[in-house]
Design goal:
Layout: H1 5-8, H2 19-29, E1 35-37, H3 48-59, H4 72-86, E2 95-98, H5 101-112, E3 118-123, H6 129-135, E4 139-144, H7 155-162, E5 167-171, H8 183-195, E6 199-203, E7 228-233, E8 246-249, H9 252-263, H10 271-281, H11 285-306, E9 313-314, E10 322-326, H12 334-345, E11 347-351, E12 362-366, H13 371-392
Amino acid sequence: MKISDRITDITGGGSDGWDVFYKARRMIAAGEAVIELTIGEHDIRTSAAILDAMHKAAIGGHTGYAMVPGTPALRAAVAARIAARTGVPTGPENIVITPGGQAALFAAHNLTCAHGETAAFIDPYYATYPGTIRGAGARPRAIVTTPESDFRPTRAQLMAGTEGAVSLLVNTPNNPTGVIYGPETLADIAAACIANDLWLISDEVYDTQVWDGAHISPRSLPGMADRTLVVGSMSKSHAMTGSRIGWICGPQEAIGHLINLATHTTYGVPGFVQDAATFALGQGDAVEAEVAGPFRRRRALTLAALARQNVVKAIPAQGAMYVMLDIRATGLDGEAFALRLLEEEKIAVMPGESFGQAAAGHLRVAMTVDDAAYADALARLLAFAERQAATRA
């Protein structure tokens, strides 16, 4: 029987770039001790207070079909959070609750892209972006940036890369680079969207993990509120990755269509999970700062360790739970370096090539193990890089 090419071609007919990750998991399953610095999973788990709220909601009976757009309480809480942080008037009518940020990205592209239309995104990119676009029936187009610009897109790149497209997907704070787009880059993004009449899909799931500078939502820029869909999630801000709870914020008419899409796909999110998310948002900024705290510390550890050597360089680690390392001085590409590091040091990191062609010769390191283990793994990684560079010399 034939299978739809919309599904069989999700990865573009090739590898999804996660071979090192899968190899590390096989080694762990075989009993080997591997330090995983691969995926964006907190080393802490969802707090007991949030889980208690979820348990009480479930025991209390909120286990049936929940409102498809989201519970009124959660939509109001998300809207209030966004309005307070961005200054853009936002109400519950601007919010639809989704089963996590990934489902939100898929829904946003289904809304904005007709079959065969072009959807642009920035390279390097989170690994699911092109597949999400293909899954929505659109054609992905990467706007390739360079390490020399810290992987920030230029206005010329944005203008050329979005010509003929219908949407542009951006992510700040950025996964995998850790870069935050500042006012100049955001102005260039807005200019390209307005000039080429694009929808902007803004992935802001790391908005609470800011180490240097400030996060600015492009929805707050002049002329952008009516053409921007903001993707948010509880996964990174509250360590609720497994709860699968996110949202899209956008114009009321667009949200109405997204609610219709949810009715015919996910049919909403469990009510007890939504109640837990409402409780979590009600705990305020201090809880989010506590969840982000370990990554702030490890970012400082990273910068201190890098300052003691001159082989590996870092792309400015301004936000998110990752640091992107430039290992081109070793003479190895990212995949070869990562495979050797895994085999020889039992440390798993993601090759830059997993996130597009722009990050070749780089690594993405997730700062997701305890401080002592992270410092040890980073020291061994840097020593390994120095050995490779010496061999090359």
